[in-house]
Specification:
The protein is an alpha/beta fold. Helix content is 34%, strand content 22%. Helix 1 runs parallel beside helix 9 and helix 3 packs antiparallel against helix 4. The protein is elongated.
């Protein structure tokens, strides 16, 4: 599934990107917990009776799961993988506020590609994936997709995401968590420039057992502002115009606030065992996806 390139944007999932995702998909684990403190939810490939597939044996695997008949035929140890009767949902919260329509490629273009990459890997592993799009002051939740048969419809959902208005990201996260019947992976792709405190909502998600993945998308101009002098800045979400003088002191103050935002998200991820990956829009996305799969804290 592709789309025309605009403003330096690439296709949603190109052929080479998909090949990379196919190599990484088996390593994308969910670490969702039940509501009880300390209790781990068994992974979807648990102990049900429905056989799913074989995979190569790896040190640490339960020897009782080895398919000895297959080993006798091939000489290669493989482990039986089963599909659990109940599974969790990978929920993708995509911030499509007007502020993400910035940068080359735009922040939204890269947020969509990264969210699509996570969803693709989960669907390729027969997981369920649900997309929640935050734009224009509302949260629109799509029906969940399931397995490889759901990939095409899922990518169409992702391609249809367009920037609009403002978003109250904290309230959006609360809504998604409240409507989640069971905990699962909760991946949030955003620039996290939300006027309201987000940490309390993220904390409630963790307390609810969700496995948090924070994908922080930033434009190069936000890291290295190329502006100076007297400017009239328009808020992309509200239309409000503010006249400012961008001198060295003002830029330093901005950079300190931006660094503080990144440090706050990083500290939250470290404290709660979440994943935090920061991606600059002009950087290739494959390394970012590998960091997400490795559960990095950038």
């Amino acid at each position: 599934m592709t789309q025309p390139a605009e403003r330096g944007e690439e296709t949603l999932l190109g052929a080479s990107f998909v090949r990379e995702l196919e190599l990484l998909r088996r390593r994308l684990e969910q670490r969702a917990r039940s509501g009880a403190a300390g209790e781990q939810v068994s992974r979807r490939r648990g102990g049900s009776a429905e056989f799913h597939e074989h995979r190569p044996y790896a040190p640490g695997d339960d020897l009782r799961r080895i398919d000895w008949a297959a080993y006798a035929r091939t000489g290669e140890p493989v482990v039986k993988v089963f599909r659990a009767e109940e599974d969790t949902v990978v929920r993708l919260v995509v911030d499509a506020s007007a502020s993400l329509d910035f940068g080359v490629p735009t922040k939204l273009a890269q947020a969509r590609r990264l969210a699509a990459a996570i969803g693709y890997m989960a669907l390729a592993e027969s997981e369920r994936v649900q997309v929640a799009v935050c734009s224009g002051g509302a949260v629109r939740e799509h029906a969940p997709a399931r397995g490889r048969n759901g990939i095409l419809g899922f990518l169409r959902q992702m391609e249809a995401i367009a920037p609009a208005g403002r978003v109250e990201l904290a309230r959006a996260v609360d809504r998604v968590v409240e409507k989640s019947a069971r905990p699962g992976m909760l991946a949030i792709a955003s620039d996290f420039l939300d006027p309201d405190p987000l940490v309390p909502s993220l904390s409630r998600a963790v307390q609810g057992g969700h496995d948090l993945v924070l994908v922080h998308v930033v434009a190069r101009e936000e890291l290295e502002p190329p502006y100076e002098g007297d400017l009239a800045l328009e808020d992309a979400e509200t239309g409000a115009v503010v006249e400012v003088t961008l001198d060295r002191a003002t830029l330093d103050a901005y950079l300190r606030r931006f660094a503080g935002l990144c440090a706050s998200l990083r500290a939250f991820a470290k404290r709660h065992g979440a994943t935090y990956v920061r991606v600059v829009t002009d950087e290739p996305l494959e390394p970012a996806v590998r960091r997400i799969v490795a559960r990095a804290v950038d």
